[in-house]
Amino acid sequence: MLGKKLREALARLTGRAYVDEDAVKSLIKDLQRVLIASDVNVRLVFALSKKIEERSLKSEKLEALSLKEHVMKVVYEELVRLMGESYNPRLDRHKILLCGLYGSGKTTTCAKLAHFYKTRGLSVALVGADVDRPAAQEQLEQLSKQVGARFYTIKGEKDATKIVKKVLPEIREDIIIVDSAGRNALDAELADELKKINEELRPDEVYLVLSGDIGQIAGRQAEEFNKTVPLTGVIVTKMDGSAKGGGALSAVAATGTKIAFIGLGEKINDLQVYSAEKFVGRLLGVPDIEGLMEKIKEATREQDIKTIESEELTIETFYEQLKAAKKMGPLSGIFSMLGASDVPKEMLQQSEQKMKQYEAMINSMTKEERKNPSLLRSNPSRITRVARGSGCGEKDVREFLTQFERMEKLMNRFKRDRSFRSKIEKLIKGGMPGIGGIF
Ligand SMILES: Nc1nc2c(ncn2[C@@H]2O[C@H](COP(=O)(O)OP(=O)(O)OP(=O)(O)O)[C@@H](O)[C@H]2O)c(=O)[nH]1
Ligand SMILES: [Mg+2]
Cα 200 from chain centroid? Predict the structure, then answer.
């Protein structure tokens, strides 16, 4: 399926230690393969690739984002653009005509829409105007009962337009949904019938129902129907089972016709208002762009663990870690949970004033002292000097050193003790925000 392959392609990028031009190019190759397999039109795929390459490598990158995050953001945004827009269905009284080829899901979608509007407090009338298929009226009548909509038709009437003309004045419901007959292709007969129904009904919405498994042909189909009866939207059904759904959505989007709803199953509540963002989010396994960014950060944290061993703890890195910890908010409990009760809670909840003090102390230290704080311990006159230079008491300087030494111990334990290490790794992978920065 498209989603799984896309997630694999993106995981190959996020799994890299760093991202360069080659990495972006190989991601684009992966994307091309995945999208073409989902029957996305080749021209669209190449336009998308070009855009991603340009924006990833040449254009504006936000300061706050790493290149990896930037590339992912670009990919997400361009996929969303490829898949169209978001729809905002009206929720006032209105008339809807559904049209489409055989078996595309019109009748089922009538019921799904009825359910959709009913759950939003509107009353719904379903009109059976498929006069061709033998059990069509019974099918819709059955579904009307199931969703609690009123069913209208004229049994035995062979002219769909006449049915519409006769039942329309009787209908008092807020939403009127008309089911029409399908065909193997949009032939002259169907075109003529649809035009006439359209004229009689004067619908506010004309939705073409098509099945996602026809892939990119959906674009041409939307264009053809649009010439017959101006469409206000397309409903793409069977998105649950189709490997070509992405192809269908992107092709419809490319024609400029809106995708209004998508069908995701046979049941009456398997209908969703279309949102390209949600669709792409689902493909990528994240709720939205923020979710995606969080996922990248998680992946980055996993790499952070790998670099902990080689990272050297100095007064400066310690201070940076404290600052990061402060930003992350209260982490109380995590350390005691790990059995690291020797790291006091206060250490992670330094006041703004304390942080300023620490900064002043660090500024009063020599380069050697910052790299090797034990120099301060072994020579009290150094502590006196730092205290004076920073305007703090000697006690404050010692307290700061104590905190540093505790962190140093914790880090050494992390490097040596495998079970402690795996506990921490589990916590980090479980999404503990930013804890990687503490070490
Ligand atoms: N899996 C899945 N099946 C669907 C979906 N929508 C419709 N179907 C199934 O597709 C088949 C055809 O659906 P109908 O609603 O009868 O299609 P139609 O366009 O009215 O067909 P005709 O009236 O013969 O032109 C039925 O078996 C539906 O249950 C969907 O979103 N997902
Ligand atoms: Mg039908």
Answer: 42
